[in-house]
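Re: weekly structure request thread

Next one in the queue (222 aa):
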Amino acid sequence: MSGNNTEDAIIRDYVGRWENEFGATRGEDCFKQCVGGMSAVRLKLIDEEQVKKLVQPLLYKWGRMGRVLGRTELSGWQANLAETIRKNSQRLERFRLAILEDADLPVEHANIISCYEEFKRVVYQIAAAKVLHQICPSFFPLWDNQICEGVTKELAAKGKAAKTNVAFCGEHYWAFMSGVQDFARRKRDLLQQLSVQYKRGRLKILDEFFVWAAGRPLSLFL
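Done, posted below.
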């Protein structure tokens, strides 16, 4: 097979494996419901009860982050997150309409970093990306520890990594978004096919791929 066909086959295989193992779980139903519910929320008016209803189930049931968010220093995170969303509502509403593949990320560099850092202070680094994705599912990609480390390593090898050693900071997330954007642009047609096949957003499909691929060399893709 040609290089592109080989890549496409691997991507299809990895996403298919993820879907076969996890696609029918209750957690995925929760993810879909919480993302869909958030789409109808007016961000400038969001309150603690809406966060408890829509965000908390996504982070606890789907994201399995109850232990992290149960830490004493994060006590009251629901109210603090509602305040953070309201504070950033204007730019988040703009990002809601954005598609990562089409975005001018250098122009949004400061906004993305600031937004991520503010959410990170409230719910820590992994949950910050999950909440941002929930609010803007076509713009902010998901990540976890393994995905972040795998992608960062490959971007560093190509001289595209963030110019900082501070793990999981806003600069790292912006560099991660840039790497994901490059990949998503190259594979847009395939990701759209898989999105239709599995009834998931393209960035969610990419996350499923990275879950399987992050523990392996990613240089074939990034």
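The two ends are 19 Å apart (CA to CA). Residues 3-213 form one domain.
Next request, please.
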